[in-house]
User: Fold these one by one.
Assistant:
Number 1:
Amino acid sequence: MQIKAHALISPAPGTQRELISLHYGQPAGEGTQKAYIQASLHADELPGMLVAHHLRQQLDALQAAGQIRGEIILVPMANPIGLSQHLLYMHMGRFETTTGENFNRHYPEQTEAAALAAEAQLTQDAAHNVRVLRRELKKAVDESPVDTELQSLRRRLMSLSCDADIVLDLHCDAQAVMHMYTEIPCWPECELLGRFIGSRVALLAQESGDSPFDEACSQVWWKWKQRFGERFPIPQACMSVTVELRGAADVEHELARQDAQNIIAFLRYRGLIAGPKPALPDAVGDARPLAGSMPIKATATGVLTFVRQVGEQVAAGDVLAHVIDPITAEVTELKSPVDGLFFARDFLRFATAGMRVAKVAGKEAIRTGKLLGA
């Protein structure tokens, strides 16, 4: 295993942050694959860091046994900027405090730049086209200009991941069941991952808006397929997915060890690790449109208490929570707008009017526009 340190742009004299990546196996070549796994891009979402710790132990053992085929890159902590941000003893790892930007948004798109550089080299050989496009994409990413520490972090993460067959971005919600976000073209491969990790629901969109990290890795392939049409065969050569490892407080060795084992089993199933192919587990969830994931908003201000638990199936009109005004004693009911899976809720227990406090995944696409929260 190689450990590499990638210096970010210095934000101030005397300050220099680094991104650390762990490299297993050998650089992927013809006939082999590359997997990229990163944890805690939202730096205050810690279950992924613990899963990465257990992944590292298992990958170390597999490397020593010579069982890793191709290349596996593990970034055990993907956001050194957010990891250092605290205000009044509160960790602030979702947004950069300088710009207010979400660390998991606004990844630059290099689809057209890579397509222009690759077009004259493309043939009727799909595998050849994948190699050419990956090479030109990585070159375009590495040559893209950056001016700030945050931009340099985004570029480095993309440089490490943009040529991978498999990209796993490990996050968590506030309080939630295991679930995933991915693009529609990734779903056939992502469905297999969902079986191994026990995902209760996968939320699918062709493009959710604001260019989150996982979509920046996978969307180039279906966009190239649209661009080149019938002229050149372009497969969906990257399965990229955001894995939501339950809730923020689910930072326990037993859970993380099992999650790491499940990810290893998936990589073995995909052929990146030698050994007998594991049996494919039964699915415990399904796929639903991200546009059908409905936010539940507080319609009043007060103490928030839930009367339903995450993981429950609910019907439209079911009461999920109460908001209690401590002065007037008025109780406001918050109801589900759709039939669906009550899959996530906030951990804060004082709600302000308009605050999103929960999410229910319905089966019908309802929302339009940008589909992700802040």
Note: The chain has two domains: 2-284, 290-361.
Number 2:
Amino acid sequence: MARRRTHVLVTSVIGVLGLALLALLGLRLLTDSVLRQLTDGTLEGADYWTSDPRILSAGLGFDGIIGLPDLDEQTVRDAGGSWYGGLRCSDGEDPTDQNRTSAATTATIERAYVGGADVDHDDGLPVVFSWPVATETVDPTDFAFTLNTGETVFAHAAGMNPNWEDDERNTVVLFGDLGNRLPSADPDAVFPVRLEIVADDTPLVLVGPGGREVSAVGLTWTTDSSPYDAGPVLVGAKLNRVGSAPVGEGGVDLLERAGAMPNDEFALYGGGDFRLRVLTSGGFSPDGVTGLRPDEFEEFFRLRGRGPGGDTVVLDQVGVDYRLAGGTLRVVGLADLGRREAEYDDCYQEDRDNYIDIILDGDEAAARSIEAVEIPALPGGYRAFYNPGGPGPEPFPGVRYTAPGPPDVQPVTLALDDPMRVTRARAANGPAGRILGLAAATLAVVLAVAVYWRRGWTRPRPERPPARTDRPPRAPRGA
């Protein structure tokens, strides 16, 4: 009987542990699904921007608004963020918190960044590489920042969001205690002046032409300015054919359903002939809070091309056929922002990443005449871009926000003959994959123990010897 009770007790404990582990595994599958897909190493038609691996930009983005306990007006104000309290959506729906502010909670960051649980009123810093990264190798310990004070620091968290689509993944976003809001000329200013990629347990890997994988360890980048001097700029521009279908769009299931997808040229315009993708040093926003809209090309951009006589032709309007050397070309609109809508307003939800697509229709020879993308940022004519630390439509008084971006011209790389893209299969050893592997191994051990106990209980028992019948009768007590 004692053996049976022991077996029942042990079996019950194993059952409870197994169910608990299965529940935990299921919860991790749900909550870690974003991080798991962000760190699976997948690339599909991802752009590389130069023939050699390099860091294109790595300046401080903004200060103190990432990793808040909640998103409400007072919490955001206390952190030095901006809150669009007067926002009204034209469709009658209530604005989301993400429509009102670019600040983010710790809970949000934890789901999509390695080390995200440690983020608390952190600064943001995007690192833009010329080649896409093998995302399973991304960790905060890859990035050693030297501050203008001489101190070397590491970020708390690193991840691919919002540059998460399989055809993107050039930009790693880091959060940590990386600086303050003073302009670089102020003697009390603190900001990173140097980045070096350093070796850790999983050294950062970049993927380039032909799928060649190289270690990023040893790459460096330097600056002498802060985002409170000047805002984001262009660091790349590449012209590709559109083709017959989008390539590499999406790649993270939950993020695809978040509201900004599909946002490619087919979803917005039914296609196009050419895609001029620009790569930016930071998230581009009209004010730091609201999203850029597909119909705002004329407010922010213009293109420069070579005319039939060798003169410069400026393409600054949508829907106009411009005559260039070799034919005509027309700007259709912007893509890789958010969904197509009947009416765009300040509630427009876009992906807020470091990529903007300018869609073009026309002759190939004319497309080959495109030479540069320009952000004029001219007062009274063109608007400037801000990163997510900008003032928004309703800045709080007395708060220092990031500066607007300067006028900028970026030469265009023609990728019509060689698309300069790379595809890579999923890796199995990312951070989230290691967590799931450990959970699966633990579950296997529990099941193995359960099987052992089950077999031990059902194994045939040796027969007891028959009771003796030749014993004399026992004398009565007290006799």
Note: DSSP finds ten helices and 24 strands in the chain.
